Amino acid sequence: MVMWRRAAWAACVVALALCGLANAADEPGKALSKVLADENKSLGIKHEAMPTVDDMAYLRRVSVDLIGRIPSHDEVDEFMAWPAKERRERIVAKLMDHPRFVDRWTTFFSDMLRLRSNESGGAAAIAYVHRSLRESVPYDDMVRRFISANGKAGAIPEVAFVLGDNADPMALASVTAQTFMGLQIGCAQCHDHPFDKWTREDFYGFASYFGKVRRYENDFTKTVYTREVDETSVLWPPEGKADAKDRKPMKPKFLVELLDSKNAPDFIARLEARRKAEQEALAAEKAKKAQAAAVDDLLADASDKALDRAKNKKQLDAVTAEATKDRRKIDLMSDLYNQSALRQELASLVVNPRNKYFSSVLVNRVWAELVGKGIVDPVDNFADDNKPSHPKTLDFLAQEFVANGFQLKPLVRMIVTSEPYQRSQAVGVEPTKQAELEAAFVASPARRMLGEVLYDSIVVAGHLQDFKYPAGANKKTVRERIRVPVNVANEDSGKQPTNLVAGKTGAAMGNQMAMAGGDMKKKGYNLEKGIELNFDDVLKKAADEAKSDVNIEVMQVKSPEEIEAERMAMEMKSNRRTKYIDKIIEKIIDDNPQFGSSFRMASPADPEHFIRIFGQTDRQTLGEYRDHAPNMRQALMMLNGRLTHEASRVGPLEPIYAKLTGPGSNLDNAVKLAYREILTREPSADELNVAKGIVKDGPNLLEGMADLRWVLLNSNEFRYLP
After folding, report:
1. Tell me, what DSSP letter sits at residue 257?
2. pLDDT over threshold 70, residue 125
3. Integer Cα distance of 187 and 209 in angstroms
4. Is the pLDDT at 326 greater than 60, yes or no?
5. DSSP-derived secondary structure for 409-463
């Protein structure tokens, strides 16, 4: 039933739009622009706004922000073929329906929630966020589940949020307050906050909501899960401040007061009307399906009543028996993974539409992601000494977000169709004035692409998402060192193998090793590849595990002694020392590279990977933001990395190839195409002449074009948004 409701949410949004409930105004971007302009006027800000960017620059900017890559040449042509007055509205609608929209914003939420695919249940949690965004699950519902879920890691994806901090009540108090409400209360764990209003008692009261949750790990299966216990671990006064006998369970206390429930502000009334319409639409759809099923039953019964009744009785008996079996299993699972009344209460308070911090911190994060600077900066520090620069604009965004059912897409659409988002940069302006313009949101700050966006944009610019060479065109002979395990029992004792190493894999082989059959193969220096995840498969695997979850954790089919003996045997087997011998082999490969999307890679990536070098964090530290400052490692990766090198090369299957070879060749058109594909614009006359010179200076036109494309890919203009 829950899955069916999720699947129906997207349809409900369409129906609500027809009822006039989806947005507060017919043109929400214009409404937002007016609110900000009026607030700037009331604040005495008289700076003249920068002009909006041209259509091609807007296409590049909104493509990067909404689907995480630059537009392809075909997408540029399609966009420019639309009527000028419709282009921006139509491209936003198209991009928000693009499958990559969900991929790009899954990364946004995974950063925010610090979800790590290499942690227990982390991959399933990322996949859960992806599915929730794809099915338009409201943000408040998603957060409610993350805060309150209990169960097995992976099988219950949302439990990864609690497991991410090892179910530690103190850590979870800080994380929940800062992530979902922008309240940094961590200092109050040890003492009253020196710069804010939070006391140590406030912190302990909030932490007590998590006081009964525990992390467990089965010694044999290594299954990790959470469950509730009867006794809380959060006691008051704090340890060391009173005798143990005088410390009592701390009573839960929420941090902030909610808006007065006696009044129904317009945005809450709109939310309630929306939710009512959703429920009515779901009920109508359910009734329609039930009616159709009843008609089918009547038709079937009319054909052969006696036979069908006998058959139905047998089926009913079988279904009843299966249902009883399933019910017992569910009851057993419920006993194992009992739910938390305290955390369900906390979740309801956090996501309550009358909790202004919940909606405000999310819209502030999205605003900063799209515009370049938060209305509250840092984005997760809502404090008395860090007031919003534009409180009315922030309130407008937050209230519209609530009224639109806590849906991401209407919020994103409102921002990217507004004037503040479309402003050009204050180029050539004195630094102090530039800072003032950007602070007033009448000029766009320079924004560098996220690491994932830069990676995928290079892939698109260089046609690496598909093969650009015919099969067999790039055959190469390569030598590879492999490490083969030696069967010591059968080894000739009179011979000493070369490069023999004892141990498991051996540190000498470095960290670029991968298991393939029985061999250890060295990958080589390739820091731009990664393991790509299929989110649907991840969730399917988690669901399959959940079905068979009643195992050793619940039903011990073996005695504890048998289980311990098997565990020790497995441990001894895994720790057995193995000898390896290094061998050099030669093989022929077809070097026809193809790169997938970095948004589908396991994340966070390896510390040496391209997207980590370009700012992706390890998602460990609360409040850690992506570092967009340039450094030497980034420059070397772009100058010498394989990704840039392969993107620069011209393949016979690319459109630009025909413009450089054969009877239809045209160097001017080839250069213009390179600029469109890489920089999403036409070259100026001077740029065209310089570019043609670079191409002609190459050994041939194909290699010369590779030089030009390499230069364009390494330009600041490519890495930064227009």
Report:
1. P
2. yes
3. 18
4. no
5. HHHHHHHHTSHHHHBPB-TT--HHHHHHHHHTTSSBPP-BPPHHHHHHHHHHHTT
